[in-house]
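Supplementary Methods S3. Input chains for the assembly prediction are listed below.
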Amino acid sequence: MRHWLLHPRLTLLVRLTLGLTFLLAALPKLGDPPGLAKTIWAYQLVPAFVLNPMALVLPWLELLCGVALLAGTWVRAAALWVGALLLAFSLALAVNLAQQRPIDCGCFGAAGPRTEAERLADMRWVLLRDLGLLLLVAQVLAATAPRKP
Amino acid sequence: MRPPWHSTTLRILTLGGTALLAALIANRLAAPARRLAWRTALPLSPAPAKPPGELERRAPTLPKVPPSAPEPHPQGARPAAAAPATNPAAPPVPEQTRTTSAPITEISSQEAWQAFQAGLPFLDARRSGEFTEGHLPGAWNTPVWEADLDDRLLDFKAQRRPAAGDAIVIYCSGGDCRDSQLLAEKLLAQGYFHLLIYREGYPDWVSRNHPVEKGAR
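Predicted structure tokens for the full assembly:
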């Protein structure tokens, strides 16, 4: 079982999936930091002084990690970043979901106008997707773990 | 030999540092509508601003317009009742008005229409791209989330010269849009105390067949 889970081909597939996801998530956000700041503010979890720096740096971090995962360089460092980001995103979504506060995920840029029920339903799916992506990160981390001497 | 965690930590920090550097350069090169100030100039409270609908709903003090003003009306230019573009000698609001009305008040579609006919200034708090696609005729483009908001507000004040007590109508895209509220709080902090939020906003204006204008300002 362990042999299959850490198979190099599976690791490659997982790495490419994660890399592509983060690359695609970064591109629309890179072009519109004000929109991202507005989206992050809607989560009501980030203090005001962190909001704008976060909206400016986050897309670049996603882009760099995505490229690193696709290129196969610095995979472990990029996977650790991606894991930390996914954990933060999931937590932010979970908190808002628990409070039944419908927000736009903003994961792949700004979304069009939707009803509150649609947003809440979306948030559940996004939370599930993020948890799935976290499993992929765990696979990459396990496969790239430094071997004990 | 260095421990394996050493290089990973270094790489994590390098990735973060490179992202920061890239953001600094990209934001400097970005067009104003895509630029974001590193320090927010908005009064962003940690708790959400009052959700739409929970604002003060006292009767706003709108200038009187002729009761015969038709609504709806054909698409066209601003009605003749509208005031001129500049209003330099706007008298201050009487003391009595100040005490009976909250500084930030919500107004209905009907009241927004009356305010439009009375020639009150309208500030559009949405993104500049949305403004270009369509806005209330004569509205000022003051996108709260964009880096040049302060310049745009200065421009508005220089041209329109509103007194602290003059009514200013603010709108965004309706629904749960809180941009109008943010802009109102910013203007309140700057001393303006007769701010009217047209909560239903632009979609409502369009749905009522009121005149709209396209293009940047």
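The helical segments of chain A are 2-5, 8-30, 33-43, 48-71, 75-98, 116-143. The first helix of chain A runs from residue 2 to 5.
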